[in-house]
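User: Could you go from structure to sequence for me? I need the amino acid at each position, not a summary. Structure tokens:
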């Protein structure tokens, strides 16, 4: 199998990408995903207006670390000049890739013409993309959706316009903006893009990949160059290595033990506190505990401490107690 390249960036034979997820894909989360097999990761999406105005929240999202590489910085916005300048600012942070968000479905983004909203104005989308490509030296990629709704699906045209504008890879989420995250992702449209004889950039599929079996099935059915994984990785970074093992052997690896779950949760918390400081690091870690320990019976008392405590010492002690209390019983089979 040939190596997949995004411009001059080698991302492996069949890369597994960590999706950019707001309030999730920060450096601490990316660290544990990288340790568990993610080949290419993206930052949370960053507002172009926030970057050019030097807003603290936007600028902090530019933080990337050598252990994460290769990594892409994702930006969004509705103004071409702002996106040009934001791309240049993002490039100064020295990622391998600059990514453009043409897929965010939330109202406050899409209804302003950014994210998936630009799918209603394909000439502007193409012009904006071309301007960003001209402004930076890094490879530019795009993540998008099928269309605004089922009546406006023009993803083949979108892909060709974006390729003509100079992007080096395209990730397609198999839902429309109207669907948000509901219903089933329709990968037949992704396959249609991949099957176009004049599409020569890598095409990655996104949407509903939540098991090694499904990853293997979709790889075979739809012929994509790699997979982007989002929600299934939250609290379960092991999914990347599990997919790789299944694709290589046809067999499943054992589920992570309780000790492994505790260890990764502790490492995630350590990274979170180191990056954000004690108070914010503790607070923003709270959304992850339920997923790390999903399936444990009688977990509620421990969860209450984890999501209410403001003491890192108490939280680390509680994580140790979880392991001690439940032992190594096969809780996750």
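Assistant: Here is the amino acid at each position, in order:
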């Amino acid at each position: 199998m040939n190596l997949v390249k995004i411009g001059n960036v080698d991302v492996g034979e069949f890369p597994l990408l960590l999706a950019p997820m707001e309030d999730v894909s920060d450096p601490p989360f990316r660290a544990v995903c990288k340790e568990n097999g993610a080949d290419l990761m993206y930052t949370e999406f960053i507002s172009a207006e926030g970057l050019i105005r030097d807003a603290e929240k936007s600028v902090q999202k530019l933080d990337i670390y050598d252990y994460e590489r290769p990594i892409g910085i994702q930006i969004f916005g509705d103004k071409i000049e702002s996106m040009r300048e934001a791309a240049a600012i993002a490039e100064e942070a020295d990622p391998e890739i600059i990514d453009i968000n043409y897929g965010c479905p939330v109202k406050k983004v899409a209804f302003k013409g950014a994210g998936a909203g630009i799918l209603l104005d394909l000439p502007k989308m193409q012009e904006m993309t071309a301007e960003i490509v001209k402004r930076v030296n890094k490879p530019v990629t795009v993540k998008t959706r099928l269309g605004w709704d089922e009546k406006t699906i023009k993803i083949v045209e979108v892909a060709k316009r974006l390729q003509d504008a100079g992007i080096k890879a395209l990730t397609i989420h198999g839902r429309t903006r109207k669907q948000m995250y509901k219903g089933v992702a329709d990968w037949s449209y992704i396959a249609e893009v991949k099957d176009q004889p004049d599409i020569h950039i890598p095409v990655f599929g996104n949407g509903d990949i939540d098991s090694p079996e499904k990853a293997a099935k979709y790889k075979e059915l739809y012929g994509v160059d790699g997979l982007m994984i989002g929600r299934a990785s939250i609290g379960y970074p092991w999914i990347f290595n599990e997919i790789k093992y299944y694709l290589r052997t046809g067999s499943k690896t054992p589920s992570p033990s309780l000790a492994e779950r505790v260890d990764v949760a502790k490492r995630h918390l350590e990274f979170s506190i180191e990056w954000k400081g004690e108070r914010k690091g503790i607070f923003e870690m709270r959304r992850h505990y339920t997923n790390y320990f999903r399936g444990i019976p009688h977990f509620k008392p421990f969860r209450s401490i984890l999501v209410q405590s403001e003491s890192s010492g108490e939280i680390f002690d509680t994580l140790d107690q979880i392991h001690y209390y439940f032992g190594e019983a096969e809780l996750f089979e």
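One structural detail worth keeping in mind: The longest strand covers residues 71-76.
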